[in-house]
């Protein structure tokens, strides 16, 4: 499913080919106040429908504002309340620095790539 939001964000949401319970969000562009609300609505509907494992593929994420960070925190809380989790993959150094500056490293586990994040879900289940 592709979601084109206002602003410069194109989002692709898909389930992993071999792990149908892992939802992957691939963000191309940036997440800020001009486009995050539609993203929250779409992801919220998927979480309400049963999605519990979310990986945010940041390999093409050019920037994220403080509002975008707040969106990720809200998604994390919503999933955690339902026994789920959000993992970040391929985080660019500027985005990683922002996460560290605002003190969210304990909340978000960061992996070098989507496969590493996906494998971490399985390690946790074991």
Characterize the structure shown.
The protein has 126 residues and is α/β, with parallel strands linked by helices. The chain has a single domain, classed as STAS domain (Transcription Regulator spoIIAA, 2-Layer Sandwich). Helix content is 40%, strand content 29%. Strand 3, helix 1 and strand 4 form a beta-alpha-beta unit.
Task: Briefly characterize the structure.
This protein is α/β, with parallel strands linked by helices. It is built from four helices and seven strands.
What characteristics describe this protein?
single chain; 126 residues; alpha/beta; Transcription Regulator spoIIAA; 4 helices
H/E series, N to C? EEEHEEHEHEH
- CATH architecture type: 2-Layer Sandwich
Which structural category fits the helices and strands? alpha/beta
Strand content: 25-35%
Give the topology, please.
Layout lengths: L1 E3 L5 E6 L6 E10 L4 H13 L4 E5 L3 E4 L1 H16 L3 E5 L3 H9 L7 E3 L2 H12 L1
Parallel strand pairs: 3-4, 3-5, 4-6, 6-7
Antiparallel strand pairs: 1-2, 2-3
